[in-house]
Design goal:
With 260 residues, this protein is an alpha/beta fold. The chain has one domain: TIM Barrel, CATH 3.20.20. It is built from 7 helices and 9 strands, in the order αβαββαβαβαβαβββα. It has an 8-stranded mixed beta barrel, surrounded by 4 helices. Strand 2 and strand 3 form a beta hairpin. Helix 4 packs parallel to helix 5. The radius of gyration is 26 Å and the shape is globular.
Length: 260
């Protein structure tokens, strides 16, 4: 039969347990709160979903790669904005741009155009290619530039050429262009000096992870394998982070160029 412990030993054991529990509670309370938006501590927080009282605004970005599209089905599925590739580099134009814009203009949907930026090409000639292509088109959203390849150019060269493209397009259209890229490219080749321009992040994680230092993040491209009625195969899916208020801020009717 086990011997009964002395009362003093039992009291001492109880005190020790209480002390341990108090220390554990102090450690837990001292830990920093976790950031659940996908941005780590010290970075700006960006909600991957609009507030509960804000309606989610979904969009897609497309090019000739999507082939023939039934735009009535696309818009009927709830897509509220479409960005279409217009140009690439100095001379290339998307062969489906004119046809698709004509179809989209008859539907209740906001339309934007984007340019794929070639880091080694003359930025003024790239801007002119884009402006010539979108001139007179029924666009309702600010222009966007897709910057994601270095083509063996230095970070300094990319920044200078991108700055030129943005300035030329903004002066011609009267709209502030949007920069599209992914986290590592933004941090290595764009950085906070471009925070004046709205940023469109490509990030296919379950929770959005914003670049360090970004301040003007407005759109999250959360999938490159999305499925939308009216489109065969995959399509990029995008979400406005501020809901309908962001849609209002994104609108800029310019038809390619301001009147002289």
């Amino acid at each position: 039969m086990p011997q009964k412990q002395p009362r003093s030993s039992t009291i001492n054991s109880g005190i020790a347990i209480v002390i341990v529990l108090v220390l554990l509670l102090a450690v837990v309370l001292a830990r920093p709160l976790l950031v659940t938006s996908g941005a780590s501590v010290g970075k700006p927080e960006h909600n991957s979903h609009p507030a509960g009282n804000t309606r989610v605004v979904e969009g897609i970005d497309v090019s000739h790669d999507q082939g023939e599209v039934n735009w009535s089905q696309v818009v009927g599925s709830g897509i509220q904005f479409v960005y279409h590739k217009a140009t690439d580099g100095i001379t290339w134009r998307d062969p489906m741009f004119d046809k698709n814009l004509q179809s989209l203009s008859a539907l209740k949907v906001d339309i934007g155009a984007y340019h794929f930026f070639e880091a080694e090409d003359d930025p003024q000639k790239q801007a002119q290619n884009f402006l010539n292509t979108i001139k007179g088109k029924p666009l309702t959203l600010a222009p966007m530039v897709d910057v994601e390849t270095t083509k063996n150019q230095t970070s300094g060269q990319i920044k200078q050429r991108l700055k030129t493209w943005l300035e030329v397009v903004q002066k011609a259209t009267g709209c502030t262009p949007i920069i599209y890229s992914y986290k590592d490219f933004w941090q290595d080749n764009i950085d906070p000096q471009f925070n004046y321009y709205p940023f469109w992040l490509a990030d296919y994680s379950a929770t959005m992870d914003a670049p360090e230092g970004v301040e003007n993040l407005i759109i999250w491209q959360y999938s490159e394998t999305g499925q939308v009625p009216g489109i065969r195969g995959n399509v990029d899916r995008d979400r406005l982070l501020s809901g309908e208020s962001g849609m209002t801020a994104l609108r800029c009717t310019h038809e390619g160029q301001k009147d002289d």
